Amino acid sequence: MITLLITKKGSGNTAFFCGVEGKNMSNLKFYTLTDKYLNFLYAIDDKVHRNYPAPQIKPYVGVLFTIDIHQYFAPISSYKKKYEKINNNTIFKIYNRKGTKMLSVIHLNNMIPVLPSEISYLNFNQIQDVKYRNLFRDEYHFVVNNQEAIRNRAEKLYNDVKKGEPFYSKLSCDFAKLEQEYVKFIK
């Protein structure tokens, strides 16, 4: 199982997430995560992505999966031309349903461990912007159809970073340090 997550930019206090059980879109669920938790992790590792302050309106989107005993969130970023040239395990490219246009990338190198206590339910229909809601659906469709490849690449990157592979360690969050510290988060 892979979980699609959405983090709202500009809210000042909330990140949005969406859960997926299997491949049926009727199982789509959204969750919230506070900025306080993201800021806590950022203080440990400045490669952690945080919410943007207002006036940004596009929520972050990401995937949630389990590596070892930890649930990890990997943020999705909007398409940028520079991503076309990257061919390594730091990102996973997301394409439209025809596979002809890159929509975004999953930043596996910026994945972070997530505490289940910091995630709470939010209704999918609360995303008001139709453009972004449709983009999320297309991203979701791709993620669900490629979840095994995403998980495998994330686990490979995770293992390379934990082993101290220089190239990936330089570009990635310090997974070992975050795993030691994230459980110390206090509301």
List the main descriptive attributes of the protein structure presented here.
alpha+beta, six-stranded antiparallel β-sheet, 29% helix, disordered N terminus, 187 residues, globular, three-stranded antiparallel β-sheet
Give an overview of the whole structure.
This protein has 187 residues and is α+β, with helices and mostly antiparallel strands. It is built from 5 helices and 9 strands; from the N terminus they run βββαββββββαααα. The chain has helices at 35-44, 130-145, 147-162, 166-171, 175-181, and strands at residues 3-7, 14-19, 29-34, 60-67, 70-78, 91-95, 102-107, 112-113, 120-122. Strands 1, 4, 5, 6, 7 and 8 form a 6-stranded antiparallel sheet that branches. Strands 2-3-9 form a 3-stranded antiparallel sheet. The longest helix has 16 residues, at 130-145. It is globular and about 40 Å long. The chain starts with a strand and ends in a 6-residue tail after the last helix. Residues 1-18 and 20-30 have low confidence and may be disordered.
Task: Give a quick summary of the entry.
With 187 residues, this protein is an alpha+beta fold. The protein has 5 helices and 9 strands; from the N terminus they run E-E-E-H-E-E-E-E-E-E-H-H-H-H.
Write the layout of secondary structure elements.
Elements: E1 3-7, E2 14-19, E3 29-34, H1 35-44, E4 60-67, E5 70-78, E6 91-95, E7 102-107, E8 112-113, E9 120-122, H2 130-145, H3 147-162, H4 166-171, H5 175-181
Antiparallel strand pairs: 1-4, 2-3, 3-9, 4-5, 5-7, 5-8, 6-7
